[in-house]
TrEMBL record:
Gene Ontology MF term list: acyltransferase activity
Ranges for domain Acyltransferase: 15-324
Protein name (Swiss-Prot/TrEMBL): Acyltransferase
The SGNH domain, residue ranges: 434-654
Family matches, as InterPro entries: Acyl_transf_3_dom, Acyltransferase_3, SGNH
TM region positions: 39-60, 81-100, 152-170, 177-197, 203-225, 237-253, 259-276, 297-317, 323-342, 362-382
Superkingdom of origin: Bacteria
Key words of the record: Acyltransferase, Membrane, Transferase, Transmembrane, Transmembrane helix
């Protein structure tokens, strides 16, 4: 992704330019046609190795020739090379925001701000473990890898300066000092990547700490090649081996591969092998392809090509509501190439070769970052004005469906609450108070509402489909009618058998341990009533472990009841309402289409447990509208808004026969 280094002590290496072409083509094909190149994401790892090689090599030459590293001059070169094109694409994405539904606007602006400050990778790492995160295809998401590189550009020279000073006092050469610190950081980062990837693949994928070794690998190669020449035969072998390694990873890996970890060694070592093969004169070497005019051109435009392709893909999907096919995929690539060429010639080249003084360059760069960041913050301040707790203002919500005079088709789509642009923030208070357990932990957390001395003590167990009902019990708790405690964990089925968890790419052992801890907790607490609410998305194979867990509660003599799952839409409610001209048809799916085959309810029937069915509060005989009683029902495809969930307090009071009179 980083471009050609035009440093006084550095010359263009054609094989590296050709390797850039391979890297960017891998990423592009993966993003446009993932079925063709399911592991094409390894192109990013190839870029990391290239950046580590070029930057470390440049800094080493500067240290050897000048005896020091001029950090400000280095930063100025990076700013001139990278920031203008990045700012251009960020601005284009900002202008495209109206193409997206209003509910997605805050996520896009957050992405722009995170990219402007080069922390996009950490922003996405946080989302990767956040069960609420819905911005999986944001138009700025690809900036995560640029953020990793920018953090490397910022901190690497800051690390090397004191290392060089220490090395001089110890009588060591710059090359030896570079080699030791690169090896130390690389080994530590690789070990951490191998450790973290199976435990927390989301964070491991985006974190700088788990990717630093890939840059260090390139840096170590620069240090080694600075004083060692390889034989022509070895170069030829390394070139072919490198191509085979990258090709193997691109074709054999997929989204289920635990990555980076050990798996990232294959493409990164392949990239290192190709770099080491540079200079081979054999007509049968891979240099024949890498040095071709096409690959040199693609390598030269790879940075702009990487910047432009992803926003174009995301915007295309948003407009057409489908993934690219063959013909439209080709058009996307051509459009990306055209924009890349223009920005390369008229933005990258002009700024890179400008004669701005170091101080002025840094000031302008800081100004661009600040302007982009403030744009995002300013927008969020404006759009956040309607956020926070929403008063019901006399609206009926769920109870409206029981009124024979009520017709949901008469709802005004311009007046419901929360508004589409604020719906993602309309979540239960459990996420702010952190009483809903995250995926990586297994301790029992409790969300408590009401009076501990109340005569009715209720416990609810489940995943986020329990958590989204908590606002109803929070309302009942305010009335003093109950003492409610919620025990919920993200994406976790209350079960005594571990099941495979796709995000972790392994068995969800944290969920099993949590379930055992919940049982031990219930043995101590002995509530009057236990409610179980789970997502209907778990496979039938999980039924046995779930049944065993329920039987343990029944054997304790607890009153166990199951809540039927809420509807599961085929679209995001806020997106539909923002785009539709006839919401009562487009955004009110048929009742028979939105209730999944519910393993939880089916198991409850077999075990003769009482099932609480709230479907009549969410649907009429035929359809399930997304606006009821002036309130937007869903915050995504299957979770209720907190505002609507509050109005279900009346339903639970009725269904559970809760006495609201004073205790």
């Amino acid at each position: 992704m980083s471009g050609v280094m035009h440093h006084p002590h550095h010359h263009i290496i054609k094989e590296v330019q050709g390797l850039r072409a391979i890297a960017v083509l891998s990423v592009l094909i993966y993003h446009v046609w993932p079925e063709i190149l399911p592991g094409g994401y390894v192109g990013v790892d190839v870029f990391f190795v290239i950046s580590g090689f070029l930057i470390t090599g440049s800094l080493l030459k500067e240290a050897e020739v000048e005896g020091r590293i001029n950090i400000l001059r280095f930063y100025a070169r990076r700013i001139r090379r990278l920031l203008p094109a990045a700012a251009l694409v960020s601005g284009a994405v900002a202008l495209s925001i109206p193409v997206f539904p209003k509910g997605q606007w805050p996520d896009i602006v957050n992405g722009i701000a995170a990219s402007a400050t080069y922390v996009q990778n950490w922003y996405l790492a946080a989302q990767a473990v956040d069960y609420l995160a819905g911005n999986t295809n944001g138009p700025m998401n690809h900036f995560w890898s640029l953020s990793v590189e920018e953090q490397y550009y910022i901190f690497w020279p800051l690390i090397l300066v004191p290392v060089l000073a220490t090395a001089r006092k110890a009588g060591l050469t710059s090359r030896v000092a570079f080699g030791w610190v690169t090896a130390f950081i690389g080994a530590g980062s690789l070990a951490y990547s191998v450790f973290l990837t199976p435990l927390d693949p989301g964070t491991a994928y985006f974190a700088t700490t788990t990717r630093a070794w890939e840059l260090a690998l390139g840096g170590g190669l620069a240090v080694y090649l600075a004083r060692n020449a390889l034989s022509p035969a070895l170069r030829e072998i390394l070139g072919f081996a490198g191509i085979v390694g990258i090709a193997f990873a691109s074709l054999a890996y997929n989204d289920s591969t635990q990555f980076p970890g050990y798996a990232a060694l294959v493409p990164t070592l392949g990239a290192a092998a190709i770099i080491a093969s540079s200079g081979s004169q054999s007509p049968w070497s891979v240099q024949t392809i890498l040095n071709s005019r096409l690959f040199q051109y693609l390598g030269d435009t790879s940075y702009s090509l990487y910047l432009w392709h992803w926003p174009i893909i995301v915007i295309y999907r948003e407009i057409t509501d489908r993934a690219p096919g063959l013909a439209d995929g080709v058009l996307i690539l051509l459009a990306s190439g055209g924009l890349a060429h223009v920005s390369k010639v008229y933005v990258e080249d002009r700024f890179r070769t400008s004669s701005f003084a170091v101080g002025k360059t840094i000031a302008v760069g800081a100004g661009c970052i600040a302007a982009t960041f403030l744009l995002g913050i300013g927008y969020l301040s404006w759009s956040d004005q309607a956020r926070g707790p929403v008063a019901l203002n006399g609206r009926l919500g769920a109870m409206a469906m029981l009124d024979p005079q009520y017709n949901w088709r008469d709802e005004d789509p311009s007046k419901f609450i929360p508004r589409p642009e604020n719906v993602k923030a309309d979540v239960p208070s459990v996420y702010a108070t952190k009483c809903h357990q995250e995926q990586r932990r297994s301790e029992v957390l409790t969300c408590m509402y009401g009076d501990p001395t109340a005569k009715t003590k209720i416990v609810m167990i489940g995943d986020s489909h329990a958590g989204h009902l908590y606002p109803a019990f929070e309302e009942l708790g305010r009335e003093g009618a109950i003492y409610f405690r919620g025990l919920s964990k993200s994406a976790c089925l209350f079960s005594l058998e571990a099941f495979y968890h796709q995000p972790f790419k392994r068995d969800y052992t944290e969920c099993l341990e949590w379930s055992k801890n919940v049982i031990a907790w219930l043995e101590r607490e002995r509530p009057d009533l236990v409610l179980i609410s789970q997502s209907p998305a778990y496979p039938e194979s999980t039924g046995k472990g779930m049944t065993e867990a329920w039987l343990r509660l029944i054997e304790m003599g607890l009153d166990v009841r199951v809540i039927r799952s809420t509807p599961w839409l085929r679209f995001d409610a806020d997106k539909c309402l923002s785009a539709s001209k006839n919401w009562s048809v487009d955004c009110a799916p048929m009742r028979k289409d939105v209730f999944r085959q519910d393993l939880v309810s089916a198991t409850a029937d077999k075990m003769e447990l009482r099932v609480l069915d709230l479907s009549n509060y969410l649907c009429d005989a035929e359809r399930c509208p997304t606006v009821i009683g002036g309130i937007l029902v869903y915050r995504d495809r299957h979770h209720l808004t907190a505002t609507f969930a509050k109005t279900l307090s009346h339903a639970f009071r009725k269904e559970l026969s809760i006495d609201t009179r004073a205790n």
